[in-house]
């Protein structure tokens, strides 16, 4: 979700900022952007084969120390602070499905791989990226290195929380006393950590002697790398890793060379920007103004210097340059847009920008700040409805100087989508059409889980009182009560999945349960925990930890499942739950994702072109 809909919590002034966000979001009305017009006749020549474009997967660790920022009480007012329990369990399977659906095509993830930005989230997603076995690139999103996409540890250090202990506790998977493996002081994943982890993952894919490697130690480090393989998809990386409180100024810039279509006579280069150079002080300042730091994108001069150099090289090679970044164009700060427009003006071909961040998806044409139009394709989210992704390719009419962007909305059937129902039907046809389980039973189970989650929400008054008061048992008890309810939702989801596996006869490897289950099998242990009642604050904390430990172990187990029918089942459940939750949400709270508003911004369109004027 867009970061400005999140709360900056845990700070003395967090509740006031939260109320400011609520007021602002309630007053803002939807105004559609200008979109591309009807397609003119043109003689296009194919330049590239397709690549898969995805965004906003937001893998969420839901079993660490509970925070007010991500509590169900906030979710009652600000979407989607807390997603349905099916999403933390199965949501990453939608990304896996999209990537494995087209195994011969490179991919670009446009950012927000993680949600809280935890080491466990990164590890879970890395397994999926590794399993693709093919070239790809990931752009940093505002959730990739900032907690909830809204602030980093420098803000907390400057106020109350020395060493970001609250963020780190939220990232301690399982929260169980015996789980020492996941209780290090480095469970939170900063922007520097994210970039360095990514460098290490990309280095694994390169042949010996390619020269790419992760940065040593925790000091500041600059990376300037060129791929020795001239036709490689990832052709260059420029990164600046900054340590300590400066970490939010780090950047990861990538140069991608798209595969040529047969007969193409020029390359298409994607300059994958890092729009998340938040700065060391912007977090505190934005929160004081009632804004989230991650809501607006920033690119600083050190990164733009390299962008300008790469643009000049592309000009010499007659390559078409396409720009990509996590933030949509209008969410970039005015100085950033102004500087990028200056860089784009040097190119002698039409301009295209590919983005994510909005969780809605659209086509838009931007004419501000420059005479030449900029065509933007914003891909949808894989964590919130409308769950979708794109397959993108390019064609060019050299005589008319017109660039065509094909962006098939995926998944799809025999015909392009005309509605949300068409999109849902395509997902169901691919992932739910399995004779080993009943789709109607899955829908009924997911509807019940979502209903219980929404019914268990607290109130905003309750949240404000507990957030403003000193830490005390009476203040924190509602937080743990809500956290226990959410763990119950995940346990119920897992029990339904366990029953489906047993009914289908699938043989999955055994799971090693936490010590708290004793000799009980999973179903018996989960059922017993859900039936247990906590009388006081210490009992609520203890019960939450035992439930969270079981959910965490089960979630790790899900990562190791490779059986195709089981993977389809999990993908099916994630998509259905997202749609059920969307339908159950008041229209006023999901205005930017309403089908009528997405239609007004041409969400269902599958291709558009742009010229020089």
Describe, in short, the structure shown.
The protein has 613 residues and is α/β, with parallel strands linked by helices. 39% of the residues lie in helices and 13% in strands.
Query: Kindly, what is the distance between the CA atoms of the first and last residues, rounded to a whole number of angstroms?
Result: 33 Å
CATH topology of the largest domain: Purple Acid Phosphatase, chain A, domain 2
Average pLDDT figure: 87
- The number of distinct helices, counting runs of at least 4 residues, comes to 19
Strand order of the largest sheet: 5-6-7-8-9-10-12-11
Helix content range: 25-40%
Assigned CATH superfamily of the largest domain: Metallo-dependent phosphatases
CATH architecture of the largest domain: 4-Layer Sandwich
| Structural class based on helices, strands and sheet pairing | alpha/beta
CATH class of the largest domain: Alpha Beta
Rounded Rg:
24 Å
Strand content: 5-15%
Largest sheet: 8 strands, mixed
Counted beta strands: 15
- Whole-number count of domains: 2
Low-confidence stretches: 1-27, 153-160
Instruction: Tell me, briefly, the overall form.
Output: globular
Write the topology of this structure.
Layout: H1 14-27, E1 45-46, E2 51-54, H2 72-75, H3 86-90, H4 92-101, E3 107-109, H5 119-132, E4 136-138, H6 153-159, H7 165-170, H8 191-205, E5 221-226, E6 234-241, E7 251-257, E8 268-272, H9 282-288, H10 301-316, E9 320-324, H11 334-344, E10 351-355, E11 362-366, E12 374-378, E13 389-397, E14 402-410, H12 420-432, H13 439-455, H14 460-468, H15 473-504, H16 522-531, H17 537-559, H18 564-584, H19 595-600, E15 607-610
Parallel strand pairs: 2-3, 3-4, 8-9, 9-10, 10-12
Antiparallel strand pairs: 1-13, 2-13, 5-6, 6-7, 7-8, 11-12, 13-14, 14-15
